[in-house]
Amino acid sequence: MTTFEELTNRIKRLVGDISEDTPKYSDELYVDAIQNAFRAIQPWVPKTAIATLIPDGSVSLALPTDFYDIEAAVVNSTGEVLYKTELVPGNFTGTNTQGTNAWILYASKYITFAKAPDGNIDLYYLANWAVPVVGTPSTDVMEPPDYALTGISLYAAAHVMLPDGLSITEIRQFATKVDSGNPEHNPIQKAVDYLMKLFLSEMSRMPKYQKVM
After folding, report:
1. Burial 93-132 (b: 16+ CB within 10 A, else e)
2. Strand 102-104 relative to strand 83-84, pairing
3. Would you list the domain boundaries of the chain?
4. What would the pLDDT profile of 166-200 be if each residue is shown by its tens digit?
5. What are the DSSP E strand ranges found in the chain?
6. What pLDDT score does 120 carry?
7. FRET label pair with 66: which of 52, 85, 110, 129, CA 20 to 30 Å apart?
8. Is the pTM of the predicted complex or chain greater than 0.70?
């Protein structure tokens, strides 16, 4: 498993930030980049999790704080996999719903059932990867699997270089072109675009994740 320091060093080598005396980019920017990269890989490399929702008499129950997407809602006592409600004309919800119960992700941060559950619900879901923060110990092990490190590093490197690419764009709009030919006026932006293409190419090599539903 890869530590926070090892992952950060991989990204630093990609962006050419290898001098410890005069770093090119701040620690905060590297943390931001890794956080965004962990979110970016989720469609290809999801974190699967299970949580038990305990009824409180209402139809809406709060989702786990690390919730990203749902796989299934299962009645704990019987093992019945509940249907997802489709809000289309002709369908019924509430007490008139077909089957034991049904659910919908509504409103934000809640799952709402057609009927108030009378027993625990096992929620099979996709979770957000735990992300490092400023001050994370260098030896902390990162949650995503090692096979996703290349994609994470490419996306994070693009994020680290992005502010420089944007600042060049702001400055160049006032410059006067005195040279001939077709020079590259924003090489950093081009590098960012290239890294993002490499990221998408790398993630497309991953086995396609098959959702339960």
Report:
1. beeebeeebbbbeeeeeebbbbeebeeebbbbbbbbbebb
2. parallel
3. 4-41+130-204, 47-127
4. 665 544 554 555 554 455 567 888 999 999 999 99
5. 47-53, 60-62, 67-75, 83-84, 102-104, 110-113, 121-127
6. 98
7. 85
8. yes
